[in-house]
Write a structure and sequence with these properties.
The complex is a heterodimer of chains A (116) and B (110). With 116 residues, chain A is mainly beta. Chain A is built from no helices and eleven strands. In chain A, strands 2, 4, 5, 6, 9, 10 and 11 form a seven-stranded mixed sheet that branches. In chain A, strands 1-3-8-7 form a four-stranded antiparallel sheet, with no helix packed on it. In chain B, the strands form two sheets. A five-stranded mixed sheet of chain B has the order 1-9-8-3-4, with no helix packed on it. A four-stranded antiparallel sheet of chain B has the order 2-7-6-5, with no helix packed on it. The chains are: A mainly beta (116), B mainly beta (110).
Chain lengths: 116, 110
Amino acid sequence: GAVVSQHPSRVICKSGTSVKIECRSLDFQATTMFWYRQFPKQSLMLMATSNEGSKATYEQGVEKDKFLINHASLTLSTLTVTSAHPEDSSFYICSAKRQGARETQYFGPGTRLLVL
Amino acid sequence: DAKTTQPNSMESNEEEPVHLPCNHSTISGTDYIHWYRQLPSQGPEYVIHGLTSNVNNRMASLAIAEDRKSSTLILHRATLRDAAVYYCILNSQGAQKLVFGQGTRLTINP
């Protein structure tokens, strides 16, 4: 099956610092990756769509200068939360679509971010 | 994106079948019906998807109404590990993103 990993699985940081989260497709090439955020007891909210080699497309209300996304290769996308604040504490989840596939997305295990 | 409606929660017993309903009265002809589930503290997991015909795989079955305005995810024999939030999502052919609703929280009683 298709496997997507995320690193780190959990991170605690001080307010004002930046945190980078990696998302990797381990056994397939992903032309498109997605980043979601999930607050406790809520559903997943799509933050941005990331295509390899091009700029990410952000959903309405998501600050692109605060949530920097880089998709430099077909197997790696990174999300950097810049100048993190306590309200950015959340569960961040990435997903990836196989190159050539139109439907199924494969999700990573998520990264829990706690900003103190 | 076309909207889906699911019950907030359902409860079932171990080793019994579970039928999870989803209404999607505004579905268009190119919308696929996807089901994902999310176990506690994990990322979502693909379960099944279909367009018009019923679908079966090792995890579940998907029964799609003839008018496609509703569908039902069927877990044939629930286990405790099936306790999760189940999301029914419509996705147009070729569309990039999935839009998650609130889903159905399934509790399995031993």
